[in-house]
Amino acid sequence: MNEQRSRLRDLVASPQMIVAPFVFDCLQAKLASAAGFDCIYMTGFGTAAARGYPDLGLLTMSEMVANARAIANSVNVPVICDADTGYGNALNVWRTVREYEDAGASALHIEDQVFPKRCGFMAGKQVIPMESMLPKVRAACDARRDPNLVIIARTDALALNGWDDVERRARAYRASGADLIFVDGIKTLDDLKHYAEKLGDLPLIYNGDLLPLDQLKNYPFKVTIHIGTMLTIFNAIQTAMNDLNRTGQLPINTSSKVFESFLQTMGAPEYQSLEKKYLD
């Protein structure tokens, strides 16, 4: 049994909402863990961006699994992972779950978009029929060897078909074995309220930042994955690059405490102790 998966199961069963910030590399994962988050979310949007691509279904399953493995190995907290559409039909989903499980994922979500998929907040999405998604959900649940691996079924039907179809799909996915239900593309407060009111009896994930966390905790969400961290990181890097090019300097350098904090976060002292133990 995987300790992080057992921990995630306990967290999901607790009455408190879990907050999992977006991360797409090991440094961000370590910073999230050091900040005190009990869980983190490996974003497919960010994983694609880190490789120079938009979130338009351009990354392969192997690339996503490699990032999941690196991140899971870098921290001691559960990692929820984006697994896109499962990269094919139900048989492909079965293998996808096995690969993510071997990589150390504590949870993964499969969505009902037509491949190639795209970010849930982008226009131009299409969804497969519900009847085509149900075997994929069943295959995902059957494929896991560790019963604590959390299977999440995501639907992107809201923008296309409205709430009636979303509710029909969400309840069918739950009945097919999904541990959590994820309706993506919640863009307005009205949609957020509809999500809570129509499906609040199901175990739900919310993706977004429409309300502060203390207000979101009044909603019946088991997990909130917070996209704001990824956007803040992008903005900070963009600002630093522009400032350096414009002014020729930045306020933070190797003589600042930030450099030492960076080394501490990456575990440099621990590795240096190991080096001393084995090489001196």
Provide a short characterization of the protein structure.
The protein has helices at residues 3-13, 26-35, 44-50, 61-74, 90-103, 130-143, 158-161, 163-175, 189-199, 213-216, 228-247, 257-265, 268-279, and strands at 18-23, 40-42, 79-82, 107-111, 150-155, 180-183, 204-207, 221-226. By secondary structure, the chain is α/β, with parallel strands linked by helices.
- Tally of helical segments: 13
Shape: globular
Succession of helices and strands: HEHEHHEHEHEHHEHEHEHHH
Give the helix/strand class.
alpha/beta
Q: How are the strands of the largest sheet arranged?
A: 1-2-3-4-5-6-7-8
CATH topology of the largest domain: TIM Barrel
The CATH architecture of the largest domain can be given as Alpha-Beta Barrel
Low-confidence blocks of residues: none
Radius of gyration: 20 Å
Average pLDDT taken over every residue = 95
Percent helix range: 40-55%
Strand content: 5-15%
